[in-house]
Structures are given as C-alpha cells and as structure tokens.
Design goal:
The longest helix has 26 residues. Helix content is about 65%, strand content about 0%. By secondary structure, it is mostly helical. The radius of gyration is 38 Å and the shape is elongated.
C-alpha cells in the first residue's frame, strides 16, 4: 500500500473514533426519571367502561322467563300465533334493501 493511502485511512479512522466518542457522550447525558406512566380516559371511554361493567353482571339467561315459558308449555297454555312467528322470521331479514 502506498504511504498516502495509508495516511488517508488513518485520518478516517481518527475521525470515526472522534465521532463515536461524541455519540457516546450524548447518550450518557440522558437522565432517568421516576415518573410513572399515566392513562387519562375520556368521559366517553369512562361511560363505556361503566356500561360494560354493568352488562357483565347481567346473566345471559333470564331464569324467570324460562321458568314461566316451561310452565306454560307444560300446562298447554303456551300459544303463539302464525302471524307472530312469521313477523319474527321476516324481521330477521333486511327486506328494505
């Protein structure tokens, strides 16, 4: 290798070392804080949270209604008209387009 080329490499190496030292000193200047993360919920989010909590306490099956229907079926008084059945079936479809 020529002497001139070697000098250029040595100078570049020196520049690189100086740059690295400066970058390390920048990172050492960062200080730690004792502040903890905080979350601030909006009013709407708090309302949703309260509604969700209230709904989670409601049972999936309303035992009182089930019991009443079972008693009606057992006694033979449970009667649903064809019109009511048809309305329920049609209400499950979006026929408006």
């Amino acid at each position: 290798m020529s002497e001139v080329f070697r000098m250029r490499i040595d100078k570049l190496a020196g520049i690189y070392e100086t740059y690295n030292k400066q970058m390390v000193s920048k990172y050492k200047a960062v200080t730690k804080t004792n502040k903890k993360d905080e979350v601030d919920l909006s009013g709407t989010a708090k309302d949703y949270q309260a509604a969700y909590k209230a709904l989670s306490n409601v049972p999936d099956i309303r035992q009182d209604k089930v019991k009443a229907l079972k008693e009606q079926i057992a006694s033979g008084t449970y009667d649903v008209g064809a019109k009511e059945v048809a309305e329920k079936i049609l209400s499950s479809f979006d026929i408006k387009g």
